[in-house]
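Now for today's protein:

——
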Amino acid sequence: MKKILICLAILIGLTSFKTVGVRTTHLTCKSETGRTEFYAEIEDIDSKIKKAELIIDGEKIEFANEVNSNIIFDSKNGVFTMYLQSKNQSKKDFIKYKFLKFWAIPKSFKIIQEESDKGKYEFKAKIFSTDPRKGKDSTPEIELNCIFEYEI
């Protein structure tokens, strides 16, 4: 009986802790005009991109696991940058080559909620990328309104 109670206490103790795993963060951005939208799913806030898509005038370019990603996130200083680039593709072969540069404007960065298991931030950002529209090489710098959030 004593062994059963000890096993039960251990089992209850182990199951009462929250599992800390990979958290997927969600970034949603839209330009003032509504012509440009950017969405991204990022593993562990500043790790790697799961998927991202840039939509301009209804034309879409997608980024997923096949890209190199560099992400920096520091909410205390209002820093959030992201650089995505095609893997193993030459800039000379521009049809297949894709890139995306994204950066938050630090003065606009607002912490809406920040706790150990969830966070929500709002800010303005700029984006410069391979243009998804036919006949265009790269976008101009576009300003976006963004919401960045995670929950474990």
